[in-house]
Design a protein that fits this description.
single chain, TIM Barrel, 3-stranded mixed beta sheet, 15 helices, globular
Length: 406
């Protein structure tokens, strides 16, 4: 048990993350950009990540780089293939020019994948209906899992070729690996179902494959993972089971850090986001019949949870107490006081999403403020940015700050 976590007093100090060094301990979390209409890098995507890089973050995370065409949540997302590398190289070079590092979030969406827009079969632990795509995901075979695992390794190699400093493996939100971890979704009776040990095989196997690929390529990039602490639904991934999974991942030695997250993209997304539930705006983002269903039952799907700073800290503390490896605190990090609290409690890094969408230069403003701690985020947690991921991700209150566009 890690009963005496390290205490870092300055979130703006340099930090080692595996083999790389970040200029500070602040990471822009993966938030889908809706800037890749042809599943390739665009100038819009480059600008999306250059802005927070210029704005002071230590690292920005590209969301999301699927490992296969059928692993995307929608057909206009990037999937890792040789044709994507030239554009990804331009993206990484632009971020590096601003002094920041850049990570590629790699994963397979599993039952969250949109089989209709992907024009490819989705995978799940068991046959599963996705109401957003109006398609069934097929029960993944052992061969399917082997292919997906190998695709993660290939994606990591392509990330290295593209100039990324890190990869973040998506093990959360009931994407494929997370859906296998969930006792609610994973009703299999073979070697990938039943006990937590069996249900964790996909996640552990994927991490092991990525680590092996990175090591064989020289071990020059960091490997992190996004892991659900809880799905926020009865019968889903519980904190106790997630903690045990995290311990296995630590023992396996494949990760340089874990970013702790929560919530299910399938049944309870607001458990991660907290704040207002924009049901009307979500309904407006879809065509009938999905828009009709969203207006009718949207309040049940988008359950509302009150916002507070560091709202995942209570659960994350239990991981910090039991694990020795670096942890990234996510959820309600918008000001210097909250960052300092995370450092004092032994978290090596903090990750920010919506606050940086509202103000890409927020970190520079906080740094310039020094000890005054007077800078407050403009984000109101209205969450109206969430439905914009189906068109062009942006803050509906601030848009893109002209001062940083060049």
């Amino acid at each position: 048990m890690n009963t005496a976590p390290n205490v870092f007093t300055d979130v703006f100090s340099e930090a080692k993350l595996g083999p790389i060094t970040l200029r500070n301990r602040i990471i822009k979390a993966a938030t889908f950009e809706a800037s890749t209409p042809d599943a390739l890098v665009t100038e819009d995507l480059i600008n999306y990540h250059r802005l927070p890089a210029a704005g002071g973050v230590g690292m920005t995370t590209v969301a999301y780089c699927a490992v296969a065409p059928g692993g995307r949540t929608d057909g206009w997302q990037i999937w890792m293939r040789p044709q994507a590398v030239p554009g990804l190289q331009k993206l990484t070079e632009a971020v590096h020019a601003e002094g920041a590092a850049i990570s590629a979030q790699i994963g397979h969406a599993g039952p969250v994948a949109n089989a209709r827009t992907n024009k490819a079969t989705a995978l799940a632990p068991v046959r599963f209906f996705n109401p957003l795509s109006m398609r069934f995901a097929k029960k993944a075979t052992i061969d399917d899992i082997r292919e997906v695992t190998a695709a993660h390794a290939d994606a990591a190699r392509l990330a290295i070729d593209s100039g990324f400093d890190a990869v973040e493996i998506h093990l959360g939100h009931n994407y494929l690996a997370s859906s296998f971890l969930s006792p609610l979704i994973n009703r299999r009776t073979d070697e990938l179902g039943g006990s937590l040990y069996n249900r964790a095989k996909v996640a552990r196997g994927v991490v092991r494959a990525v680590r092996d690929a990175v090591d064989k390529a020289g071990g020059t990039i960091a490997v992190t993972a996004k892991l659900n602490m809880s799905d926020g639904i009865r019968g889903g991934i519980s904190l106790d089971e997630s903690l045990q999974t995290a311990k296995w991942l630590e023992e396996d030695g494949g990760l340089d850090a874990i970013e702790l997250t929560a919530g299910s993209s399938l049944v309870n997304p607001m458990y991660l986001f907290r704040g207002d539930a924009p049901v009307k705006e979500f309904a407006g983002a879809f065509k009938p019949p999905i828009s009709w269903g969203m207006r009718t039952v949207g309040k049940g799907f988008l359950r509302e949870y009150p916002y507070r700073e560091a709202y995942l800290l209570r659960e994350a503390r239990q991981f910090r107490a039991e694990l020795k490896m670096p942890l990234i605190l996510l959820g309600g990090i918008t000001n210097r006081d909250t960052m300092d609290k995370a450092m004092a409690e032994g978290f090596e890094f903090v990750a920010m999403g919506r606050a940086l969408l509202a103000e890409p230069d927020l970190i520079n403003r906080i740094a310039a403020d020094g000890d005054a701690h007077s800078v407050k985020s403009l984000c109101t947690h209205c969450n109206k940015c969430m439905p914009t991921i189906y068109s062009h991700t942006h803050c509906v209150l601030t848009g893109a700050p002209d001062a940083l566009v060049r």
